[in-house]
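Margin note from the TA: students keep mixing up input and output lines. Inputs are the sequences; the output is the structure of the whole complex. Example:
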Amino acid sequence: MSKKRIIVVGNGMVGHNFINTLATSEYASQFEILTFSEEPRLAYDRVQLSKYFSGYTAADLALTTESEYNEKGVIFTLNDKVVGIDTHAKTITTASGRIEGYDKLVLATGSYPFVPPVPGKDQDHCLVYRTIEDLEAISASAAVSKTGVVVGGGLLGLEAANALKAAGLETHVVEFAPRLMAVQLDEGGGKLLRRKIENLGVTVHTEKNTKEIVAGEECRYRMNFADGSFLETDMILFSAGIRPQDELARKFGLELGERGGIVINDFCQTSNDDIYAIGECALWDNKIYGLVAPGYQMAKVAYNHIIGNLITHIPSELAFKGADMSTKLKLLGVDVASIGDAHGRTAGSQSYVFNDDIGEVYKRLIVSADGKKVLGAVLVGEAESYGTLLQLMLNNMDIPGNAASLILPATDGAAAVGLGVSSLPDTAQICSCFDVTKGQIQEAVRNGCHTMGALKEATQASTGCGGCAALVKQVMDAELESMGVEVNTDICEHFAYTRAQLADIVRVQGYSSFEQVLEGHGKGEYGCEICKPALGSILASFNNEYVLKDGLIGLQDTNDIFLGNMQKDGTYSIVPRIAGGEITPEKLIVLGEIARDYDLYTKITGGQRIDLFGAQLHQLPEIWKKLVDAGFETGHAYGKSLRTVKSCVGSTWCRYGVLDSVSMAIALENRYKGLRSPHKIKFAVSGCTRECAEAQSKDIGVIATEKGWNLYVCGNGGMRPRHADLFATELDDDTLIKYIDRVLMFYVRTADRLQRTSVWMENMEGGLDYLKNVVINDSLNICEELENAMTKVVGTYQCEWKTTIENPEKLKRFSQFINSDKADDNLAYVRERGQRRPATELERIELVDLNSK
Amino acid sequence: MSNWVSVCELKDITPGTGVCALHNGEQVAIFRVSANEQLYAVSNYDPFSKANVMSRGITGALGGRVMVAAPMYKQHFDLATGECLEDAEVSLKVYPVRVNAGQVELG
Ligand SMILES: Cc1cc2nc3c(=O)[nH]c(=O)nc-3n(C[C@H](O)[C@H](O)[C@H](O)COP(=O)(O)OP(=O)(O)OC[C@H]3O[C@@H](n4cnc5c(N)ncnc54)[C@H](O)[C@@H]3O)c2cc1C
């Protein structure tokens, strides 16, 4: 049977989603998939487009790659617009003249920004906000502008305003309607949003109808409004709504809506049965859906219908039934949510309003005539109840208890009325971005996902906008409880506490020894290999004493106890600190001489330092004496502590560098060296956005920009690589260090044992936003304390090896035998590529044979 | 077992740690789990990693049994009997050990 041919016009978010579903399905081998994109690249995450301004690259935003498409056999053509359809011959024509036949054609052409027909709108610095190229143009224009105006105070317009403001422009928003976000918000909500946004320094002009754009006097342009007033600006961004991209349908006779949009039925078929339309170009029940989730739903429906039609010949029952347009987002840092019938247009509906001018919170709840059901809501300034309200509405559930309490702040004693997740039906959609139901989450929990991190990975729930995170966690916890899994977070049998709780206990009680903690808060008289190192690390984080001190030495794990990394044969590797990867030739020679004299296997590490392997216990002090004399310090490669701060060469030598990354890396490494933490910590500093130091794969990543440092947090390489998240931008040196101090100390205090920063942050309720709030806005009022704690650690640093070689009592332990100078006779080596390595078991037998002959 | 041999002084073993002694050609790990004179002695050879490293493990207790965790891969061994808690097939040789006038003696 020959393959069926599917052509997808447009490779945007929805087109890609459709292709991905088809290409990874069990039927994939029966299809040939072609896609054409007018844009110069494959699909990217348009929803996150604004992140481009905060340092995300096109690669970060990409939803797929060319090699992934090649692997899946998807044939793609970029930069080639489809311009013709022959519905009889079933072919399409592209701008470059290609003609291709199809069995089914899928139009996923999205939409384009609407620019009001104002005279003067086509000038150089009049731009729109839809593609990566648009953003590049905006960046370029902003660089030569002082003032910027966004035309349109809707959701996208405010996002655009945020971008202009971040680019340092004096920013204005010009809106035709009497209030901001007129579609989603009521008057009260719009008013508060305006106040908040104006407080941030964005000027809002409502009820302004732009008549023309002419040359300005102070600025590049002047916008003249119908009411006679005017505004001067250097650039203009139009964000006045979107229009479905229905050009092809229009030209080739498919049915359109009165005001545009390609008409589709419940199976996403257009008026031609072999042509489907999905995403923002499609019109269902006379409605365009300008969000990505409904588009994904359409893609799923179309996929099922095509499979039923071409392959299984069983008609698909999955139909598109419209979609909920509720949204929750953060605009210029303000929480805004709109649910269902936000305007109370349902006949007989009634509403509750909560307005707090002081705390700047506005909430309106719209309920049915009988007061029993939630119909809609508007939340501005605080939107925590979004998940609960949305579920009540979507599932048409009775309001539990007093409706007003759904929007009233929780008062002491009275817990906020939450929604018992147990009352939700299994079919309730919890994550709308990825269409994950309560039932699917429960199943994943039953299959072993017992943490938010695992659950996200398995189901994708809460990995889109993140608005459902709290609810997902509730479903998880409830399921765990019903499974009878007592979620035991005790660190071990000796302490009924988590690491974070132990850290609190140590801090509050001011303990300085394991025995004190065990006696006051633990069980038994010995502890074990779990709680001892954990408390060793906690005590070190707070008190920063010499780790081999009596009383502390027994808490040190395998590597720490001899200040080296134990290798498979019981010998150690030695890693001196080479801060920032910078080393003088003299020091390099010392390392070479030591390695040669002791026949140490030598290898360059990933963290820009040098690892010397195969030192026996008794050799460690001698070697370290030489290293310390030559000016080296311990590298803490053995500790759960700061490892390295990798850097590129930066502006001192590199012709692209914008800041001195090496100096910053050295300063950071010297500041945090020796800090004991729940797991190892790695940093990197890049001198420009080319990012040669790979900072975005580190716990703490710093990237230089023309305007200062961008800070990334919570990335890692290793087993489960994770890109770091952009945390703050354009920082000066002091603020950078202040934020890092806070993030690290907060991590040290609150993470679990052996939890990397990535998992720590992913499991934190509220995630990145919460962490930002704690660190940048000091929401817990602990920043001063965190900084003081860090200052103490920095001030009490000592090189553990220097202390050790100066202490003859401590050196006694550094030998294989307490009663003999002999070496361990069990060591055996072979030479490979000019260096030695431990013999394998087989080689050992041969070596012994040789020796005995 | 009359042949007690002194290998070091008690104060050479910091409470909470172990040392290794060469005893009749065998490597013996001696542990002092707390500040008192109670000592334990087992073979220094880790049967899992096949390296002579047991004396460098962390000591403690699990379910009331005083144990050492192998420093390489963290299997637990009962210090009194030498049994491996994870694998009944494996055990460490146990040696008689005592403190006599401040001296640590192996038998
Ligand atoms: C700044 C911004 C923020 C947003 N934020 C959110 C949000 O928070 N939540 C949310 O749900 N949605 C958001 N959206 C909307 C979301 O991005 C869209 O709903 C989604 O991208 C629609 O996907 P699509 O595939 O239908 O269209 P698109 O992603 O626009 O893709 C259509 C593609 O088809 C191409 N094309 C068009 N015609 C042709 C042709 N004839 N031949 C070849 N190629 C063609 C286009 O160039 C384009 O690449 C946002 C949009 C923007 C711009």
